[in-house]
Design goal:
Number of strands: 16
Largest sheet: 4 strands, antiparallel
Strand order of the largest sheet: 3-2-5-6
Number of helices: 2
Distance between the termini: 78 Å
Helix content: 10-25%
Strand content: 35-45%
CATH architecture of the largest domain: Sandwich
């Protein structure tokens, strides 16, 4: 009996040591705090630029003076900053705690490795607006509208009850029928949805195969 009690006490002691060791080890893995200023090529601060680390959005943005501060893992490789107006820039971290970044206006379109992220930009009045980041309108349709198959610039609507199985939809932008959506910038889109059935009857037989309906942002909403 005494032997069993001794073994039980020893096990509890070992478990306690292991737990304390793990806590101590986790404390050693401190985050690296990086700060800096984001500016344009002519040294003007960039507000609301968004910060990514190793292609992952950090929910961190620059303030009115272009300043940012973000905590990253010690083994993080690259920091990346993007502004829809002023472009993007990336830099190697290499353990640096201060990294200033200069944006290139020729690079306003996000690289594909960040495509599909949902980013929230904080305005000066602390109002929040959602901006969907996509490489083009077709990427946006693929991500936002279920029941639609997108291949390059080809769009078909899945029709389970149709003999053909899928059909090409009608394109409507701000209430007007258009032949193509090629010219639409995803950042200019207020809403996009698929209309089918009774919702599509407003366009008669032309809407029988479904409608991709797009509403664009107005001047005051941008």
């Amino acid at each position: 009996m005494k032997t069993r009690i001794f073994i039980s006490i020893l096990l509890v002691f070992c478990i306690s040591l292991t737990a304390n060791s793990q806590k101590s080890h986790s404390k050693d893995k401190k985050k690296l705090s990086i700060s800096g200023v984001v500016t344009t090529a002519d040294n003007k601060p960039v507000t609301d630029a968004q910060i990514f680390v190793d292609s992952i959005y950090t929910s961190c943005g620059t303030d009115d003076l272009g300043n940012y501060k973000v905590k990253v893992n010690q083994d993080s490789k690259k920091i990346f900053v993007w502004s829809p107006k002023f472009g993007f820039c990336e830099a190697d971290i290499n353990g640096q705690e201060s990294i200033n970044l200069i944006l290139d206006p020729k690079t306003r379109d996000l690289p594909r490795f960040i495509t599909g992220s949902n980013i929230y930009l904080s305005g000066k009045k602390q109002k929040v607006k959602k901006v969907n980041i996509y490489t083009d309108i077709y990427e946006m349709i693929r991500q936002e509208i279920p029941g639609v198959l997108v291949s390059g610039r080809s769009i078909v609507v899945q029709q389970p009850n149709s003999f053909l199985g899928s059909t090409t939809p009608l394109f409507v932008v701000d209430g007007h029928i258009v032949p193509s959506l090629d010219y639409i910038n995803p950042q200019e889109v207020k809403s996009i949805r698929l209309l089918k059935g009774s919702e599509a009857t407003i366009y008669g037989t032309e809407g029988a195969n479904g409608i991709i309906s797009v509403t664009l942002l107005k001047g005051g909403e941008k």
